[in-house]
Amino acid sequence: MTYSGRSPQTGELLHIQEEGGLIRTVEETGHPGEGPYIAPGMIDIQVNGFAGVDYNSPDTPHDEIARSIEVMRGTGVTRFFPTLITGSNENISGSLANLARAKRELPNGNSMARFHVEGPWISPIDGPRGAHPVEHVRAATIDEWNQFQDAAEGNIGILTLAPEQEGAIKVIEHIVGQGGVVVALGHTNATTADIADAIQAGATMSTHLGNGSHQVLARFPNYILDQMASDELCAGLIVDGIHLDGNFVKIAVRAKGLEQCILVTDAVAPANCPPGIYRIGHLEVELTPEMRVELTSSRRLAGSALTMDRGLEKLIRFAGISLYDALRMGTMNAARHTHMAKRQGFFEPGDLADLMLFDYDRESGDIAIQNTVCSPLA
Questions:
Q1: d(Cα 106, Cα 229) in Å, to the nearest integer?
Q2: Cut 0.90: pTM above it
Q3: CA-CA to 349 of 20 to 30 Å: which in 41, 107, 121, 302?
Q4: Chain-wide mean pLDDT for the chain?
Q5: CATH number at residue 167
Q6: Does residue 118 lie within any of the structural domains?
């Protein structure tokens, strides 16, 4: 099968030949293209739920998970990390087991690249804790980590924790020593020394940098600046104009560099849905008409209703970068920093044939996904 479209980098017509779920050849015609652009399918490493489906419940039906995946593919996403937030051991373990069965059994389950566990080993303090339920915040232990990974059938690929939490450094060392799992810092009230210790132990990522924090911080030092200045840490950014304003996004991209930034949604069940009341694990949330997802109990932000195509539009505008550079942050950067095999390049022969075709209006900045192709291979 051959797919053709305009290169987001040069504008010339490309022909991508797919065979057996892999990219076999990439033909650069040298001629200007017309019609839709073609790019690798996007990878979202932080998705708590989508299209009314909550991944944070052990009871979420598999047919609903399958439906949410198909809706998500319509936004340009071919691979994603279902993400679980802080909860009881029973809820997290049960939800991981449910997702693992869905990944194994559903025809489109391979879109779930790996899983992301965000908590429960985070700061209990208001502000850094965000919307995570304080009653389930606890110390980190290797035993509980092993329980989670066993329940997930080895599918956890990202763990987010606060490095100052009791037991966190030992857990980081243990996980990194085993290999294959990325440890990210988030929902933290860490000191400069805590962050340095976590990096020394093997942490390599910041989860939704700039969020899960106090409303007011010391001018310096503070845990946002410390992470932004740490070259060892790549950073996920929620570019919805609600979690971060345009100036923060521009500064973060310039400080971290294009190679170290990853576009994420932090989407929850109300994403791609009308305003109303929804659930995220133990929590009740409301999607407001202004597209804010808030806890009904406190009106704190509780994830987002962002989709990756809309995030791509805002990233180009906020950071003042090209379509190609924004796409890198939503595709190959995510793959590289999470060690996702066969998605390391931007159309490399041998990579998975995960593709998206889309229209892009350079004047308005609007992006419209026309089609996505997800390789049947994992």
A1: 42
A2: yes
A3: 107
A4: 97
A5: 3.20.20.140
A6: yes
Q: Which residue pairs, CB below 8 angstroms and at least 24 apart, start in 289-296? A: 291/240, 291/242, 292/242, 293/268, 295/131
Residue 335 predicted with pLDDT over 90: yes
Q: Residue 33's pLDDT is what?
A: 87
In the chain, DSSP finds a helix count (H) and a strand count (E) of 10, 20
Residues 182 and 160: beta-carbon distance below 8 Å? no
Structure tokens at 187: 């929902």
What is the crossing angle of helices 142-151 and 89-105, to 10°? 30
**Structure confidence by residue, pLDDT tens digits, 211-234:** 999 999 999 999 999 999 999 999
CA distance 203 to 352: 27
Q: How far is CA 51 from the centre of its chain?
A: 16
Strands (E), the chain: 2-6, 12-19, 22-32, 37-40, 42-47, 49-50, 53-54, 77-84, 115-118, 156-161, 182-185, 205-206, 234-238, 261-264, 276-280, 283-287, 292-295, 301-304, 355-360, 367-373
**What residue numbers bound the domain in which 198 lies?**
40-342
Is residue 109 situated within a structural domain?
Answer: yes
Dihedral (Cα; 298, 310, 92, 342), 10-degree rounding: -160
Residues listed for the chain: 378
Q: What gap in Å lies between CA 25 and CA 3, rounded to an integer?
A: 11
Task: Give the residue among 338, 300, 330 at the shortest CA–CA distance from 212.
Answer: 300
Chain segment 234-252, per-residue pLDDT in tens? 999 999 999 999 999 999 9
270 assigned to some structural domain: yes
- The count of structural domains within the chain is 1
Longest dimension (CA), the chain: 60
On the CB side of 367, CA atoms within 13 Å amount to 27
In sequence order, the 6+-apart residues with CB closer than 8 A to the CB of 58 are 90, 91, 94, 95, 97, 98
Q: How far is CA 146 from CA 180, 220, 278, 313, in A?
A: 14, 37, 31, 39
Strand ranges (E), 194-240: 205-206, 234-238
The tokens for 252 are: 């973060």
Distance CA(174)–CA(140), nearest Å, equals: 12
Q: What is the pLDDT of residue 282?
A: 87
